[in-house]
Each structure stands twice: as C-alpha cells, then as structure tokens.
C-alpha cells in the first residue's frame, strides 16, 4: 500500500495541467491537494459506475488528455514521447473498432464503462506498465508483421478501384 501511496505522491508532484489545477484549488480552499485528487477520483469512479452519460465521460477521458499529451509530444524535440502517443492511438483505434461492433452487446454489462475507462487509463499509464506499449508489442505488432503484405495488397487494390470509380464519376459529370 505504501508503494501505491508513493506513486500517487510522485504523480501529484509532476507539473501538468491537472496538478496545476489541484494547486490552485488547494490555495483557494485550504484543502490538501491529495484529498482533492482522491475526492475527484472517487466522484469520477462513482459517476462512471452509476451516472448518466458515463459513455461520454469515458470517451472524454480516453480522448482529451491523450490528444493534449500528443500535441505536447509533437511540439517537443524528443522522438520518444511521439512514439508513446502514436502507440496509444493505434491501440485506441483498434479498441474503438472492436467496440463499434460489440458495443450494443457490451453496453448492457454492469460497470462496462468503468471497465472501459480503466482499460484506457491502463493504456495511458507512463512507464514500464504502459498498457498500450504492452498490447502493441505483444499482440498488434506480431499480427501486423504476419499479415501486413496481404493488407497492403488489398489496400492497393481498393485504392486503385476507388480511383477508377472517381475518374468515371468525374468523366460522367463533365459530359
């Protein structure tokens, strides 16, 4: 439990948008930022479990902070943070695709959105336990390396057909 508390403390000592907001709230209210952060996490968890619009909240969590961090990564001189967020977006897009086809079934499960949010947070976690990094290197990359030539062939064929159709439509419209 002390290890978790120490990681929580280190997280609160980092300089980012959330910790700056917590510091402002701490100075205005006089309540320690650790309690504010724990209270916010508790309210967020309860809302994900029982609140209306949990889907929207979960999607905002999975999209807004990663988009912000991606913009910061693009603007930084380091290539390493770019790779971290590109990996997240690959996993996020594949998860979104899988969810699209199974959402009607999955949304009926109790606490689905809390689980989805936990998965997305797991994919964002910095460091060696980054879920996006693990999923990419253990599942997505091996599948990609095994099948990328076939996928490239299909994409090339489909793009050629799409160009032919577009040319035909343009020709017909010009006549």
């Amino acid at each position: 439990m002390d290890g978790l508390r120490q990681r929580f403390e280190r997280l609160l000592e980092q300089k980012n948008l959330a910790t700056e907001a917590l510091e402002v709230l701490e100075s205005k209210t006089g309540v320690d930022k650790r309690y504010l952060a724990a209270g916010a996490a508790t309210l967020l968890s309860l809302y994900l479990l029982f609140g209306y619009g949990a889907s929207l909240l979960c999607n905002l969590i999975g999209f807004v902070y990663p988009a912000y961090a991606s913009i910061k990564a693009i603007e930084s001189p380091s290539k390493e943070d770019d790779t971290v967020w590109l990996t997240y977006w690959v996993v996020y897009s594949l998860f979104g695709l899988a969810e699209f086809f199974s959402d009607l079934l999955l949304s009926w499960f109790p606490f689905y959105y809390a689980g989805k949010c936990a998965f997305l947070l797991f994919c964002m976690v910095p460091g060696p336990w980054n879920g996006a990094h693990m999923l990419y290197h253990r599942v997505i990359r091996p599948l990609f390396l095994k099948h990328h030539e076939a996928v490239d062939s299909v994409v090339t064929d489909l793009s050629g057909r799409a160009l032919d159709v577009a040319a035909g439509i343009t020709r017909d419209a010009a006549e």
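Residues 9 and 151 are 46 Å apart (CA to CA). The chain has seven helices and no strands.
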